[in-house]
What does this fold into?
Amino acid sequence: MEDAWQRVAAKAAEMFLERGYAATSLRVLASALGIRAASLYHHCPGGKPELYERSLTTHLEAYRVGLEGARAGVEFPADVEGMARYLAEHPLVDMQRIFQVDLPALNDEAATERLLHCVHAAVHAPFAAALRAAKAAGHIRDDVDPDIAAAAVVALVGGMAALHPGAELPLAGLSLLLAGTR
It folds into this structure.
């Protein structure tokens, strides 16, 4: 059953991230999976809102693991650069639409809070952890806030990836930002 859920979650997350919550119907999703729409209720009795939350949570956890794997075994600044490459090569699609359109369409504050926490844990937290470790090791200045620096890195990389989709990430801007932390 776990394999079936992983298959459903992967396809649902892909479609929700590509099309958005409102534009992804259970019928179309079920058709893409080769199953009946009613079968989706086996995995998510709460219907589309539950499927959206659970599939994105599953996707974001896998994303966090990939991002942290890109950091493994190297020190600052190579760890942050590796994660930046991962972020650029595996964009989460339109995060602005997720925050401004999809989450309000859920009309569930608790689910929205849980998903925001998952996005933070999957994307921001690994960068902040790398920058905290670099600060503790004396690689960056004491007055640098790792959380703010992490937000700056994520915004910079996300912006560069959006402007140059599919292109190799130019690290000059990132190198400049990281040099400013030293």
The mean pLDDT is 89. Residues 76 and 133 are 8 Å apart (CA to CA).
